[in-house]
Design brief:
Helix content: under 10%
Bound molecules: zinc ion
Distance between the termini: 74 Å
Shape: elongated
Number of helices: 0
Strand content: over 45%
Largest sheet: 4 strands, mixed
Order of helices and strands: EEEEEEEE
Structural class: mainly beta
Oligomer: single chain
Radius of gyration: 22 Å
Length: about 140
């Protein structure tokens, strides 16, 4: 048997039904919610939030080199991006690209940074619509 001992979900050509992660009810692998218990993405073994997240394996000073996060936990708490390069709705890092950012170099809507391009920002050096300049003799 080609697929004996392999869970059905991993065997191409066989049924794509999988047990729900929460209640073991058979659900389609493509299901976005369990019809019995309502668990989101029931066919996935692990599911920890909506959205998109990418974290590089390479790290620098304990931070991932690149962390992209546009993700929300199941309880709707946003997952902030935190890395040398951090991109997300909320981000902190050395270089950040975000809506709410905290970084050394930051491109954000709201930010606190060393160098910032922002709509509303507070930084040592700043290009902003509304800004608080910490450096004298500028602007
Ligand atoms: Zn279920």
């Amino acid at each position: 048997m080609l697929c004996s001992g392999v869970p059905t979900g991993y065997c191409p050509g066989k049924s794509d039904m999988k047990p729900c992660r929460e209640c073991q009810h058979q659900v389609s692998e493509q299901a976005t919610a369990c019809p019995r218990c309502g668990a989101p993405f029931p066919a996935r073994e692990k599911w920890d939030g909506w959205g998109y997240e990418y974290k590089s394996k390479a790290t620098f000073l304990g931070l991932p080199l690149l962390h992209i996060s546009f993700k929300f936990r199941p309880n709707y708490v946003p997952v902030p991006a935190s890395g040398v390069i951090a991109i997300g709705q909320f981000a902190s890092g050395i270089f950040t690209l975000s809506q709410f950012g905290l970084g050394i170099v930051s491109v954000s809507q709201f930010t606190v940074a060393g160098f910032a391009i922002a709509q509303i920002g507070m930084a040592y050096s700043l290009i902003a619509q509304l800004g608080i300049y910490l450096q004298e003799g500028r602007g």
